[in-house]
Specification:
mainly alpha
């Protein structure tokens, strides 16, 4: 039988499961080293838009990690 995939890191589980694109952006940028320009080119949006999206995601994650009832 194939080995099951390991669970995602806690921070990845805190991302909204209804927004797989957000998880994809975070994973590609912070875990796989994609630049904001590379993400923007793939999505067909500006690097500034990616920068803003990542900033909002970091803020949500920070808030979730600091909230005592999240984990």
């Amino acid at each position: 039988q194939p080995t099951p995939a390991p669970p995602p890191p806690q921070s990845a589980r805190l991302l909204d499961p209804r927004d797989p694109a957000a998880r994809d952006r975070v994973t590609r940028h912070y875990l796989h080293g994609w630049s904001q320009s590379e993400l923007a080119a793939e999505r067909g949006i500006s690097a500034k838009a990616i920068q803003s999206k990542l900033a909002r995601l970091r803020k949500r994650l920070r808030h979730a990690l600091e909230s005592p009832n999240t984990c």
